[in-house]
Amino acid sequence: MTIWNPELSQEGPRYRALAQAIERAINNGELPPGEKLPPQRRLADALGVTVGTVTRAYALVEQSGLVSAQVGSGTFVKARPTAEGFARVIGAPHEGLVDLGMSLPPPHPTRQATLGRFMSAMALEPAALEQAIDYPLDDSMTTHRQRYADWLTAQGLTVDADELLITQGGMNGIALAMSALLSPGDRLAAEALSYPGVISAARQQALKMVAVPFDEQGIDVAALAARHERTPFKALYVMPEHHNPTTVQLSPERREALVALARERDFWLIEDGVMHLPPEARGTPLYQLAPERTIFVFSVAKILGGGLRSGVVRSPAPLLERLHISLRNQCWAPPALIAGIAGRWLDSGEADRLLAWQFEELEARQAMVREALGEFDLSMRRGGFYAWLVLPAEHRAQALVETLEHSGVRVASAETFCVGSTAAPQAIRICLSAAPGREALAQALEIIVQALAQNAPPRWQTV
Ligand SMILES: Cc1ncc(COP(=O)(O)O)c(C=O)c1O
Questions:
Q1: CA of 48 to the centre of ligand 1 (A)
Q2: Which of 25-39, 46-60, 166-180, 255-269 is predicted least confidently?
Q3: DSSP state of 418
């Protein structure tokens, strides 16, 4: 029987290198919860080190709380809460706090009233009520799928209604794609910083995540090829238009290279299009470049509202049946009532008006952020909800996040987005869209500027 046999870094003492390799394997899911670490003597023989080195490494990992040693049985990977990434972003709001931690659409004064109008209209349509109350059958969703397809196509995201499956929003679409494409133990690649929902869902589905470096052009395709060589993965989750959290956009050349690599190595692409940008700010979607191997995930959460929980996935025809089965196994089908409201809203022209307002509002808010923080290393993209701020050398993200929270402003630190054992850059994500209004945003920005102007706390208390 082969045993888990990691590659050790050549730097520093052997026991430390082994402890780091174990921690990395636990964080990326290669050693899942409950897994027994190899017997010390066998691992020592496999690695060509002494048993004492393995004992010290195991003790070090135990100190960090990731494994527990059980006398007479061995050392086991401990279970960890699955939604840890989410919990760090969501937290509990407290009074007076300007919460710029969540990626929410800017509050529109009539959004609720518009929802009310569509609900009232449906209440007067007996056929819609009948459909809403009965178990939804596949063909009962045809009209809603068509509305989604028409709206997306008008937005330049050309799709055929037959390629769509209605979901309960973006997270549901991602989870469906994962369960249709991957089995426990399979590898899923992603940018080294990624959407926390994916990190959390991958952990729960016992997938191993492969972290891939990226730069200002997007995912590094040469590094992706090298990762695939060493640790072949079945699918890549990627945000080509607006990377969460850094706002990076995948360049046209990288899109071509990525698609060519996916074809050569035969892996799937899960393309997250939930952050919806104006058409002229977008590139060619991957599902148009490689329709046969791309699942495109869309949601109305960043346009109409996250509470609706509605969206679609666009999939190559041979995969649709598997996605359908995954959906059935989860919830049978999304509520036709909600799909009906979202579809009508998109179809009515109201969504376009809302979106036009939203893009203008975001532009004004981004100008405020530029004005306040323009001297720092700041990234934003047109139509995007957040700014990514790389901190000046002396600042530490976690300390700054805590200082800001005490001062009444919540932002997310880069740590929240790290895939596997990726080292977190000293950076924060500021969701400028989430402030209840421009005044609250101005207040929050002032507090951020003040916090950045303060000297970072001295670190000499530690010897
Ligand atoms: C990049 C990204 N993908 C997916 C989602 C999930 O979308 P939904 O709220 O529709 O589940 C989010 C939500 O913030 C997101 O930021």
A1: 46
A2: 25-39
A3: B
What class, spelled out in words, does domain 84-108+352-453 have in CATH? alpha beta
Count of Cβ atoms closer than 10 Å to residue 213 Cβ = 15
> From ligand 1's centre to the CA of 216, what distance in Å?
22
pLDDT of residue 88: 47
CATH hierarchy code of domain 14-77: 1.10.10.10
The whole-model pTM stands at 0.82
List CB contacts of 298: < 8 A, sequence separation 6 or more: 148, 152, 157, 170, 173, 273, 274, 276, 311, 312, 313, 314
For the chain, the structural domain boundaries read: 14-77, 84-108+352-453, 111-349
299 CA to centre of ligand 1 in angstroms: 7
CATH architecture of 111-349: 3-Layer(aba) Sandwich (3.40)
| Residues whose CB falls within 8 Å of the CB of residue 2, separated by 6 or more in sequence, listed in order | none
Answer yes or no: is the C-beta of 195 below 6 A from any ligand 1 atom: yes
- 169 CB within 6 A, ligand 1: yes
Ligand 1 neighbourhood includes 301 CB (under 6 angstroms): yes
Please tell me the distance from the alpha carbon of residue 287 to that of residue 397, in angstroms, as a whole number: 36
Could you tell me whether strands 164-167 and 311-314 are parallel, antiparallel, or unpaired per DSSP bridges? Answer: antiparallel
How would residue 427 be classed by pLDDT, with cut points 50, 70 and 90? very high
